[in-house]
Task: structure prediction
Amino acid sequence: MEFAFATSNRILFGDGRVGEAGEISAEYGSKAFVVTGSTPERAAPLIESLQSRGILHTEFPVSQEPTIQVVIEGLEQARAFEPDVVIGIGGGSVVDTGKSIAVLLTNGDDPLDFLEVIGRGKPLQNPSKAYIAIPTTSGTGSEVTRNAVLASEEHQVKVSLRSAFMLPDVALIDPSLTHNVHPHVTASTGLDALTQVIEPYISRWRNPMTDGFCLEGISRGAHALYQAYVDGDDASAREDMAVTSMMGGLALANAGLGAVHGFAGPFGGMFHAPHGAICAALLPHVLEINRKALETRAPEDEALSRLEDIARLVTPDPSASPQEGIIWIQSLVETLEIPSLRTYGFDRGDFPDVIEKAKVSSSMRGNPIELTESELEEILDLAY
Result:
């Protein structure tokens, strides 16, 4: 057995810890470039903390999932400001934008030089500018991963900028920042978080360390998500979802993902749709097709017994079958009112293009079994 594990240099977790951001930033210098979401006032506790330590700052608001052009614009502003530290406070899009800006500050101006699949794929050579990641949603786990997902409007696909240099210096996870997240966002990001502890658990690159994170994340997320959805101020549920999101980031960064995210990247690049909602619509169907494929072509594969583990964690039945677990997940998706893929203008005529792009995605390589063209088409048909 061989595996490696890497994550953020420091992980700080707990309600109110955003108040420590000023003190932490001062360790790197006196100027902070702050990437925020579409409602910058949500960053108020961070700004207050920076000001209390005399940290000069400027803000770069991000109102959409990050594109190559958004990153270039942020990079230009950051270069002009010459920060000592970059801080991303917001959802996964904001954290990924900040992560990209921080690493390009020390490596170059063109993301396409380093992007996978559509870019030149050159390795990043230099450590990133100091970066602090502060998530305000419980979803992507980007605060502890080594990549940032960027959309290319030209290529109509989402791909990763990836390097160990992109692991944040500090992941500051304050669950209290997630209490005012809208229920629909809670649902889609939460199901993304749940997907990201399920896919690495059955990934062909799984390992004993990531297994522990996945099992803990599945147990917490499956039982906390609905409560966080119906009562956003439930501190215990919000804390469990923040843990699930973090665990997912730790797991996927070291064990990969699978067909859900293999499809989500291309789909998100072609259609204007929230990443978490795409993953949520696909998750039960990917699990079902994987189950059938494994039973037919690889009945001895350990991934089948792992589907049983998942079922026993998400349902109240300690003897639940994989099918019963998948039915439970499908029911949760429906309860949380996740729309079908056709909601975003997706048509059956788009199936071949999405499938071709998904087949070459990095996430698809982690799927526990290689799926056939007809199986990939069936997944889209079920999620349609």
Notes: Strands lie at 10-13, 31-36, 56-61, 85-90, 131-135, 147-152, 157-162, 170-173. The two ends are 40 Å apart (CA to CA).
